[in-house]
Design a protein that fits this description.
The chain is mainly alpha-helical and 85 residues long. It has one domain. The chain contains 3 helices and no strands. Helix 1 runs antiparallel to helix 2. The longest helix is centred in the last third of the chain and has 27 residues. It is elongated and about 55 Å long.
Length: 85
């Protein structure tokens, strides 16, 4: 049982690292605050989701999705405020 949890935790962490690496591929271009917020939120949400669910894949992916949506909203609001200055 413990080995299965360890394997799930390793898979979840590997998934977060792969997602982060894929998102960083786009950093060579000029990203908007909304794009940066989405990527940052997804990574942070994935890590938190993994930690809160003991490394479950569902928790990691769910956390990344929720974090990405929240980060997208925050980044969009930051862009809107910058344009209205």
């Amino acid at each position: 049982m413990r080995a299965a949890k360890s394997a799930a935790a390793i898979r979840a962490k590997a998934m977060v690292i792969l997602i982060a690496a894929a998102l960083l591929q786009g950093c060579a271009s000029n990203l908007t605050k909304q794009q940066i917020g989405t990527a940052s939120g997804a990574v942070i949400g994935g890590v938190l989701g993994s930690a809160l669910t003991g490394g479950s894949t569902f928790g990691t992916v769910g956390g990344a999705a929720v974090g990405g949506v929240i980060g997208n909203d925050i980044g969009r609001e930051q862009e809107r405020q910058r344009r209205h200055r």
